[in-house]
Specification:
By secondary structure, the chain is an alpha/beta fold. The chain is built from 17 helices and 25 strands. InterPro entries: AMP-bd_C_sf, AMP-dep_synth/lig_dom, ANL_N_sf.
Length: 533
């Protein structure tokens, strides 16, 4: 039919208009644009043809050929610029890509480990449990932890062999009393102590997944116990490891007023442990298995939990070890809560991995003796210390007028090389500056105070190490920030915002500033999201 129609139409056009047609494009019925009166809209049809949106179904070639296998209609190309184009554009323009990276995590550099590699496999740092067993065998009497009370007296110590044996007893208790299976979650409910550390390794020895939880406050159970209950329920914990005092609190009448105390999981008292050892110490089949769960409640009341693998633990501990130059003869002081994030890593994990001695100062002890932390730094001649903003604030407000008294007591902080504030928030510039200024009179170097930077998922991105330039503060123009640009200005300039450097990027960590819409890297001085690898 098409061929006959074409023959007649072409002859008519040729005889009437004296125009010879080479081909005809046929479109599906009723698809040509029409005028209001029902005729064919010629100008719109021509425009569609020029734009390539007419979409013919076949073409009749005069007089004998019909083409049916037409190519697909032209697709409109996206006008947006992709990430590759952004990167090429920045490079062509001579701009640096906004990215930075810490040192590479190379092979083992710890000399006291290298000397003894013949006695232990080279994969010893794949799991913390193997590191603890190795230290218990090779250097059993080396003191890893010292716990102080409010008077500055050591009320507890843990050598490598003591920690290993106590962890074995806790592992035996989990299998005997709790009937815990491999891979089940176990809640650790302890005050800041060495017991918490032993319970953590006891869980790993038994093949359980520890879930560290801040214990309820005995004077405020109504506000703090529901959070404990919530974490236990969300984590589906099969057992609770705790002390005798806290076990009584969980089963008390006061607790019953806030939660259902009859539905607690099995509670094991670590003050009464069996003397037996576990038949074997569990070794995970792969480092990608979960080592522990890191739970935290935000200031808005949002509960978040992060799964931390054995591989992530080893990489983080190694990164901190290299950044802070931690080894067996080193001594650090820790005054922060050990319940989540980097605080938990420093309190419980880092010493076992690196072998340094950690002086543990529970923050609540400062309520009885404000000068405890600073006096300890002076007494033990500590070069590196880690604290929280709450500890720094307590000292600033409570001891700000007592610097002369501290001097009279012989407190001298000139030994402190780095004082790092651990927090998952922006640096509190005014607080750190006030702290540095106040305690400069007792020898504290203004360059010693710095902050760490991390998040719930990336526990540590930046941390001030023992080498490298001192942290600096820069000022940026707030008007430029509103337009997603970063422009440095002088200190004191109008509409300026101070930005404090949060240490140095840890070894093995790479960060890049990315446009969240194109997901492409940005050039220097542009504002975007921080992506961490």
């Amino acid at each position: 039919d098409s061929f006959q129609w074409m023959s007649r139409v072409l002859q008519a056009i040729d005889s009437i208009h004296q125009v010879g047609l080479y081909c005809l494009a046929l479109v599906p019925a009723n698809t040509l644009p029409k005028t209001p009166l029902g005729g064919i809209h010629i100008s719109d049809t021509k425009q569609f043809f020029l734009e390539g949106t007419l979409h013919p179904c076949n073409i009749l070639m005069c007089p004998h050929t019909c083409v049916t296998n037409l190519p697909k209609p032209r697709q409109k190309q996206p006008v947006g610029v992709g990430p590759a184009s952004v990167m090429v554009g920045n490079l062509v323009a001579g701009k640096r890509i906004a990215q930075a990276a810490g040192r590479d995590l190379g092979m083992i550099e710890d000399q006291d480990l290298v000397r003894k590699l013949c006695m232990w496999p080279t994969v010893m740092h794949q799991y913390l449990t193997e590191a603890l067993q190795w230290r218990a065998q090779t250097d059993p009497e080396h003191v890893l932890f010292v716990l102080l009370n409010s008077k500055g007296v050591a009320v507890g110590t843990a050598t490598c062999i003591q920690l290993h044996k106590r962890a074995e007893k806790i592992a035996a208790a989990l299998t005997e009393k709790g009937s815990i299976n491999t891979g089940e979650n176990v809640v650790l409910l302890f005050p800041p102590s060495i017991d918490l550390i032993a319970a953590f390794y006891g869980c790993l020895y038994a093949g359980c997944v520890p879930v560290n939880v801040r214990p309820p406050h005995p004077q405020n159970l109504a506000a703090t116990l529901p959070t404990v209950r919530m974490i236990i329920d969300v984590s589906k914990a099969a057992c609770i490891l705790t002390t005798q005092n806290l076990m009584r609190t969980l089963r008390s009448k006061e607790a019953a007023a806030s939660v259902n105390i009859k539905t607690w999981p099995t509670i094991i008292d670590t003050d009464d442990l069996p003397r037996r050892r576990p038949p074997q110490i569990y070794r995970p089949p792969t480092a990608e298995m979960i080592a522990y769960l890191d739970f935290s409640v935000s200031t808005t009341g949002m509960l978040t939990g992060v799964k931390i693998s054995h591989a992530a633990v080893s990489a983080l501990c190694r990164s901190i070890k290299l950044q802070c130059e931690l080894y067996s003869s080193r001594q650090i002081a820790i005054c922060l809560d050990p319940y989540c994030g980097l605080g938990f890593v420093l309190w419980c994990l880092a010493s076992v991995y690196s072998g340094h001695q950690s002086i543990l100062i529970p923050p609540f002890e400062l309520e009885s003796c404000l000068s405890l932390w600073l006096s300890t730094l002076s007494q033990y001649r500590v070069r590196d210390t880690f604290c929280s903003y709450s500890v720094m604030e307590l000292c600033t407000k409570g001891l700000g007028t007592q610097t002369e008294l501290l001097k009279a007591r012989g407190v001298n902080l000139s030994c402190v090389r780095s004082c790092v504030v651990i927090a998952e928030e922006r640096p509190r510039l005014s607080l750190t500056q006030s702290f540095s200024k106040l305690f400069k009179d007792v020898g504290l170097s203004t360059r010693a105070v710095s902050t760490a930077f991390g998040s719930r998922v990336n526990l540590a991105v930046c941390l001030q190490g023992t080498t490298g330039p001192d942290p600096c503060t820069v000022y940026v123009d707030m008007k430029s920030l509103r337009h997603d640009r970063v422009r440095l200005v002088e200190r004191g300039a109008p509409q300026s915002l101070p930005l404090m450097e949060s240490g140095k990027i840890l070894p093995g960590v790479r960060v890049i500033i990315v446009n969240p819409e194109t997901r492409g890297p940005l050039g220097d001085s542009h504002l975007g999201e921080i992506w961490v690898h």
